[in-house]
Amino acid sequence: MNYPGNVKKTYKSTVNYRNRGMDLEALINDACKYYLDMDIAVIYKKPTPIGIVEVDYKNNAQIKKAYFKEPSTLDYNGLYKGKYIEFDAKECHTKTSFPLSNIHDHQIKHIRNILRHGGICFLIISMCDNYYLFKGEDLVEFIDNETRKSIPFNIIDKKGYKLKYNYNIGIDYIVGVNELYKELILNENTKN
Amino acid sequence: MNYPGNVKKTYKSTVNYRNRGMDLEALINDACKYYLDMDIAVIYKKPTPIGIVEVDYKNNAQIKKAYFKEPSTLDYNGLYKGKYIEFDAKECHTKTSFPLSNIHDHQIKHIRNILRHGGICFLIISMCDNYYLFKGEDLVEFIDNETRKSIPFNIIDKKGYKLKYNYNIGIDYIVGVNELYKELILNENTKN
Question: What ipTM was reported for this prediction?
Answer without folding.
Answer: 0.84
